[in-house]
Design goal:
By secondary structure, the protein is of the alpha+beta class. The chain has 7 helices and 15 strands.
């Protein structure tokens, strides 16, 4: 016999064990959802692999310390020589706003009744709804981190971050140290590799230190880069079977990958030491308990995240535009 739970004489009778649903959702979040987001959203995956995800316990804003210019106040000395004890201001700070994203997991009264009678039926429905919310927030984050979208309170996206305008509380137009390198490119077959090489050296500190560690582009440009490598294919097995195409591509030994929402014609050279994902330690793709609004016959829980993408050294990234 079904058990009805009422929290108030005015509440709608329900056969759903909300505690069991919320516990199931919490388990999914712990064991599946967080891993899915950080492994399937390309930019978050790159940040996670680079170890530049950082958790902060709340606060009004995200603050990053930045280096304006090199320090050069030291020198060589002997014996009792007087040492310099003054220093110009070589550091600064930039603030970023926290941003919030959510995805609902909603079960209507009709769905509840259609799956009544066996707790496993409603848990299976909740599992399907949770999986859909998981995929939806993955897609939402992938798009929002890749390109500007029209919604208010959006995350900082890669196009905005790797640019020359305002980012956080710093205006790149007046603070030249706060500018990425942006280059108008063209036909990839004719100049793509040359422009990538120029961009690589423009933002590198040296041949081995502080240079781009990954290249992110569109699927079409990724294919164009692959086409430049096809003449280098070799048959390298004893039975002389041939296998066309490449799964893994690199430029100067650094991986090239593509994202589903990178805008047409763009290629980014990213130094992952300076691309950060800063997340509120209490809102890192958490799930809330299921609740029932007073004016709807539904039960709803939410996936929530409070975070933003930041950089503390913008000039170590480059972007090629207009690639065809």
């Amino acid at each position: 016999m079904a058990t009805f739970t009422q929290t108030s004489p005015l509440a709608v009778p329900t056969t759903i064990d909300s505690a069991a649903l919320s516990m199931s959702l919490a388990d999914y979040r712990k064991n599946v959802l967080v891993d899915n987001v950080y492994n399937k959203v390309v930019i978050l995956q790159l940040i996670n692999e680079a170890g530049t995800k950082r958790e902060i316990n709340g606060g009004l804003s995200i603050v990053e310390n930045v280096i304006r210019e090199k320090q050069d106040e030291g020198g060589f000395y002997m014996g009792a020589d007087v040492l310099n004890n003054t220093q110009k201001n070589t550091t600064d700070m930039v603030e970023y706003r926290w941003q919030n994203a959510y995805e609902p997991i909603l079960i209507t009264r009709d769905e509840e009744r259609q799956n009544s009678g066996d707790v496993h039926k409603i848990l299976a429905l909740a599992s399907t709804k949770t999986m859909l919310a998981d995929k939806a927030i993955q897609d939402r984050m992938d798009q929002a981190l890749s390109t500007p979208v029209g919604e208010a309170n959006n995350l900082i996206d890669l196009e905005t971050l790797v640019n020359t305008g305002t980012l956080g509380t710093k205006a790149g137009a007046t603070e030249t140290f706060w500018q990425a390198t942006v280059t108008q490119s063209g036909q990839f077959a004719a100049q793509g590799l040359t422009d990538m090489t120029t961009g690589f050296y423009a933002v590198s500190s040296s041949a081995t230190v502080d240079n781009p560690s990954v290249f992110l582009t569109t699927k079409i440009i990724f294919q164009k880069f692959e086409q430049t490598r096809l003449p280098l294919e070799r048959i390298a097995n004893a039975n002389l079977s041939a296998n066309a195409g490449f799964m893994n591509l690199t430029f100067k030994g650094k991986p090239i990958t593509y994202g589903n929402y990178i805008s047409t014609g763009l290629l980014f050279g990213l130094n992952m030491n300076y691309l950060n994902w800063v997340v509120d330690s209490e809102t890192d793709f958490i799930t809330t308990p299921f609740i029932s609004p007073s004016n709807q016959t539904v039960k709803v829980a939410y996936v929530l995240v409070r975070a933003n993408m930041t950089t503390n050294n913008r000039r170590r990234h480059f972007k090629l535009t207009g690639i065809s």
